[in-house]
Amino acid sequence: MPRPLALLLAGAALAAAAPSAYARPIIAVQDDRLTTWSAERAPARAALIASTGVRWTRVDVHWPEIAPRRPRAPRDPADPAYRWERLDGVMRALQARGIRVLVSIHRSPRWANGGRSPQYAPNPHHYAAFVAAVGRRYSGRYVADGRRLPRIGHFEIWNEPNIAMFLRPQWTREPARGGRPARWTPASPRLYARMLRLATASLRAVRPDALVIAGALAPTATTRANVSVGVEDFIRGMHPYRPPVRAASQHIYPGAPPGRSRALPSEHGVPRIRALWRSLAGRAVPLYITETGYTSAHTPYRDYRVTRRQQAAYLAPLLRGLAQPGVRMVVWYNLQDHDLWPAGLLDERGRRKPSWAAFRRAVR
Fold this sequence. Notes:
Helices cover 34% and strands 16% of the residues. The chain is of the alpha/beta class. It has an 8-stranded parallel beta barrel with strand order 1-2-3-6-9-10-11-12. Strands 4-5 form a two-stranded antiparallel ribbon. The protein has a two-stranded antiparallel ribbon with strand order 7-8. Strand 11, helix 10 and strand 12 form a beta-alpha-beta unit. Helix 6 (124-137) packs parallel to helix 7, helix 8 packs parallel to helix 9 and helix 10 (308-322) runs parallel beside helix 11. The chain is globular, with a radius of gyration of 21 Å. The chain starts with a helix and ends with a helix.
């Protein structure tokens, strides 16, 4: 056999034998302005995302915006109660730039959560019906205004359900009973497990091709009454309810330079996080890091911050550190700074920070 051909075949055999878990993860970026800005501005934002070199992005889908009143046929995206116009514009703008989408579906309308704020856990049947409506609308076959809408294949169930900022109640107070005093116990793992189970069944009934991603857990190891449930406690807390898990996601914001943190939600903790999900799922599942980054200015939600130059210097080592076996995607959050989360590649005025060029190099 000629040597060049032998080498080619040998290389192909090695590539075929290599475990897919070791493939480089997809690098993506999220632009949270797409969640609130008008559909008319979506094409410009999509162009900006594309100019980073990525081919994937994560988009928040806020249920109260799309369903401000209760639909009569909640699984039917054509129900007149739904308001899809802005989200349709976002999805079409991203499709026009060749950007694929992972959606995170969260927040609850008042009619679904007992008249409370959007952080409160909804009736899980209502949530499951809405997830199915999103799946049907963005199946790649649904026609609106005479045009076929894009296909979405990745669906993340809620956002950071282990902290009170995004899901309430985190804890419930059990009354005194049988001589035992009243006590506080974590509630969010149970609430989330039921949402995940019903949403998975509802979505896959209409979209068997959809990938349902569980978790999107906030990067905290702290279990504190009424505030949060740590990553390990949250995943273990779902065990009695055995929700189906086909893929999982985690948010990681290191509180130290790349590779230095030994906290559970860090590069060092990725194998442990995968092991926890494996224990719940009964098999290994792919992990998506759907938020990561370094903030380069003060934010009320984070103590650790870096300079702009440090952000640029740390970016590639962080992405390399997260590119571990089983990790399918890493999403830098976010594209542009705002006062609540200044971890962008652009500053608040849209000017490129040093991390912009570092990110483009990392994507390449």
